[in-house]
Design goal:
The chain is mainly alpha-helical. It contains three helices and no strands.
Length: 109
């Protein structure tokens, strides 16, 4: 069984990286809105780096579970998963919005 302290640390780390990814994705939308498309794409790249970190932590929990080390589901872990999934949705929408803003700008010319 995973120690409670370790589970909390992993959960908070997932929250941290997911939160960073969400913030970067939202900032990317803001940049795209003012036609800073390249900067917006760079921010999505940075968000992806944060997602990779969060996924590594999530994978660690999955591997431990597969090895028979039971994970007690805590509200913090549920919250972490919720943050991660929400941030992923924001990033997906940000990518679409960047394309949309780019298309609008192209049609102005």
């Amino acid at each position: 069984m995973i120690r409670k302290e370790e589970l909390q640390q992993l959960s908070f780390s997932i929250i941290l990286h997911a939160g960073n990814a969400r913030s970067l994705s939202m900032e990317a939308i803001s940049r795209a809105r003012v036609n800073q498309i390249e900067e917006a794409r760079n921010m999505i790249g940075e968000a992806e780096t944060e997602f990779i970190e969060a996924h590594h932590l999530q994978t660690k929990l999955l591997q431990q579970e597969a090895e028979g080390k039971h994970t007690e589901v805590s509200i913090i872990l549920v919250h972490a998963q919720d943050h991660l999934m929400t941030a992923m949705t924001v990033k997906d929408l940000a990518i679409e919005m960047i394309h949309m803003y780019e298309k609008i700008e192209e049609e102005k010319c």
